[in-house]
C-alpha cells in the first residue's frame, strides 16, 4: 500500500488525474461535477432530505469534488460530512484537478488552505467535514458514528475490489442510520448483492452520461 501523501498520478489531457495504482480516473471524463450531482446528490435525495445534524459519509475522498458539490447546495442548516481515504492527494494536486470545474474551484480555497497545513477536519460554510486517513477496511470499523447517507465513490470495483467487498459493505450498513441511504455510480452485480445482503433495499437506476446504470438503496 502506498503511504499517505504519496499518491502517484498521471494527468489525462493535462487536467484529469488518473491513479497509477488503480489505472482509473478520479472523476468521470464526462463532466465529473454533473455526475456527482446526478449520482451522489440526487441519488440520495439531496438536498431535499438535508436538515440540521444530517450526516453524510463517503468511501473515497479523492479530489474533494463530492464535498464541494455538497457545499454548493448551500445547506441552510449545519450538516456533517465524513470521508474515508487511503491515499490522500496533496493540496496542489487537488487544486490542479479542481481547475477542471470552475464552479467548485471558486469555493475551494478555504478547504485547500487548511488541507495544505495537514488539517483533515475543517468547516466549509454550514458543512463540518472530516477526512479519516487510512484503509477503510480498518478505519470504518473503528468509527463510532452512523450516516444518514453514503457516497460510495471508490475506484472501479474491477480495479479496486477491496473497497467493494461484502465485508466492507456490511460495515457500511452497520454505520448507517435507520432508513439511511447510499448511492454509487456502479451497478456491478456483486456490489449490489453485497449491499443487499448487508440489509439495503437496492435499486438500479439510469446512470450519468455514457453509464447506463447506477445503484441506490435504503437500509431496510
* Apparent shape: globular
Terminal Cα span? 35 Å
Q: Beta-sheet strand percentage?
A: 25-35%
Strand order of the largest sheet: 6-7-5-4-8-9-11-10
Give the rounded overall mean pLDDT: 94
- And the CATH topology? Rossmann fold
Please state the structural category: alpha/beta
Order of SSEs: EEEHEHEHHHEEHEHEHEE
Could you tell me the number of beta strands? 11
Query: Helical element count?
Result: 8
Describe this protein's structure.
With 220 residues, the protein is an alpha/beta fold. The protein has a single domain (9-219), classed as Rossmann fold (3-Layer(aba) Sandwich), CATH 3.40.50.150. It is built from 8 helices and 11 strands. It has an 8-stranded mixed beta sheet, sandwiched between helices. Strands 1-2-3 form a 3-stranded antiparallel beta sheet, with no helix packed on it. Strand 4, helix 2 and strand 5 form a beta-alpha-beta unit. Helix 1 packs across helix 2 and helix 6 (136-142) packs parallel to helix 7 (166-174).
Give a quick precis of the structure:
The protein has helices at 32-41, 65-72, 91-98, 102-105, 109-116, 136-142, 166-174, 189-197; strands spanning 9-12, 16-19, 24-25, 55-59, 79-85, 121-124, 127-133, 147-152, 176-184, 200-206, 213-219. The protein has 220 residues and is an alpha/beta fold.
Amino acid at each position: 500500500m502506498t503511504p499517505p501523501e504519496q499518491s502517484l498520478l498521471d494527468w489525462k489531457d493535462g487536467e484529469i488525474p488518473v491513479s497509477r495504482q488503480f489505472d482509473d480516473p478520479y472523476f468521470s471524463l464526462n463532466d465529473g461535477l454533473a455526475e456527482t450531482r446526478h449520482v451522489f446528490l440526487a441519488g440520495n435525495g439531496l438536498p431535499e432530505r438535508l436538515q440540521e445534524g444530517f450526516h453524510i459519509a463517503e468511501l473515497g475522498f479523492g479530489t474533494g469534488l463530492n464535498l464541494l458539490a455538497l457545499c454548493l447546495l448551500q445547506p441552510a442548516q449545519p450538516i456533517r460530512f465524513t470521508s474515508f481515504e487511503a491515499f490522500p492527494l496533496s493540496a496542489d494536486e487537488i487544486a490542479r484537478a479542481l481547475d477542471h470545474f470552475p464552479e467548485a474551484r471558486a469555493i475551494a480555497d478555504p478547504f485547500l488552505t487548511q488541507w495544505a497545513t495537514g488539517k483533515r477536519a475543517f468547516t466549509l460554510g454550514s458543512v463540518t467535514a472530516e477526512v479519516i486517513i487510512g484503509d477503510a477496511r480498518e478505519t470504518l470499523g473503528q468509527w463510532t458514528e452512523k450516516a444518514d447517507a453514503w457516497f460510495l465513490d471508490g475506484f472501479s470495483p474491477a480495479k479496486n475490489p477491496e473497497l467493494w467487498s461484502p465485508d466492507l459493505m456490511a460495515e457500511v450498513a452497520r454505520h448507517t442510520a435507520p432508513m439511511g441511504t447510499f448511492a454509487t455510480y456502479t451497478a456491478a452485480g456483486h456490489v449490489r448483492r453485497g449491499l443487499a445482503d448487508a440489509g439495503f433495499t437496492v435499486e438500479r437506476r439510469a446512470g450519468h452520461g455514457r453509464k447506463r446504470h447506477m445503484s441506490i438503496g435504503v437500509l431496510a
